[in-house]
Write a structure and sequence with these properties.
Helix content: 40-55%
Number of domains: 1
Pfam families: Methyltransf_24
InterPro entries: SAM-dependent_MTases_sf (IPR029063)
Bound molecules: S-adenosylmethionine
Oligomer: single chain
Radius of gyration: 17 Å
Distance between the termini: 16 Å
CATH topology: Rossmann fold
Protein name: Class I SAM-dependent methyltransferase
């Protein structure tokens, strides 16, 4: 089953404009499969859907039965597209043959939402991706919303951490971790994302990252971060170049081999 998801990540998903690259897509796959194997239940949620690249990845991995809350104002206007942001998102689903669960789409600024808005649509959340507004008030509000709607065993993934283009994301995430005073810990770091769980589940998720066959291709480097040991997944330059060359030559179907 994972081989069809891998094909999807490296081929089909690339048709959707967006911002999740293969290494993080493989981390999503590893975490969600590990939750399924351990019967850790709960809904999924994403703030910042854009055209659905991460949303459709979640849908592909988890199937139609899972409840995914999708939060975005959907107000991006690109005149050359000729359709609204939401219409383009919905069209992406049709193109990929994946469903958009309209009852769980919240067309709103996430900072205006309460935890009940999320929980009443999907129950407590086991996987919460934050990739919406990138300024400090957004990250503060979004991390509070995620923490208050998270299942005990849930994870929060923050996008664009340590990206110099968005310094307030990093400030917001470190504020959150320090204010929570050890209740949350970072178990995985990638070039673009920071993965956080509640402290009692740190060992479970760290083991997931260490042992997942999907992630063995990366260098695993133990990195201390605000009181926890996170596994930093390093993607060597030679692989990134090999991948980009294959994609540039139109060999998408082969590009997956660079990540075995
Ligand atoms: C970088 S894009 C997200 C990329 C997406 N996660 C993907 O996988 O391609 C950021 C998105 O956040 C949305 N956004 C910006 N401010 C927001 C806010 N205050 N609340 C919710 N979403 C917001 C934008 O409309 C945009 O769609």
């Amino acid at each position: 089953m994972n081989s069809s998801v891998r094909k999807f990540i490296f081929h089909d998903l690339q048709a959707i404009e967006g911002y999740i690259d293969p290494p993080d897509a493989l981390v999503f796959l590893a975490i969600l499969r590990s939750q399924q194997s351990a019967s850790l239940q709960g809904g999924l949620a994403e703030i910042g859907v854009y055209y659905g690249r991460s949303y459709f990845l979640l849908r592909k991995i988890c199937g139609d039965g899972e409840k995914i809350v999708a939060i975005d104002p959907f107000d991006i206007v690109k005149p050359d597209h000729g359709v609204t942001q939401y219409e383009r998102f919905a069209a992406g689903g049709r193109q990929l043959g994946l469903s958009v669960d309209e009852e769980r789409v919240i067309k709103s600024d996430s900072t205006l939402l309460r935890p009940a808005d999320v929980i009443e649509r999907a129950g407590l959340i086991r996987f919460f991706s934050i990739d919406g507004g990138h300024m400090l008030p957004h990250v503060e509000a979004d991390s509070r919303l995620a923490a208050a709607s998270l299942a005990e065993h849930g994870i929060i993934v923050f996008d664009d951490t340590f990206n110099p283009a968005w310094p307030e994301v990093t400030a917001g995430v470190t504020d959150f971790l320090r204010e929570e005073a050890g209740r949350y810990s970072v178990f995985c770091l990638t070039k673009y994302k920071t993965y956080v769980c509640r402290q009692p589940f740190h060992e479970f998720y760290a083991r997931t990252i260490k042992t997942s066959p999907e992630l063995k291709t990366f260098d695993h480097i133990e990195t201390e971060f605000l009181g926890s040991t996170a596994i930093r997944l390093h993607n060597p330059m030679r692989r990134r170049i090999a991948y980009e060359v294959m994609v540039g030559l139109g060999m998408r179907a082969w590009s997956e081999r660079a990540y075995r």
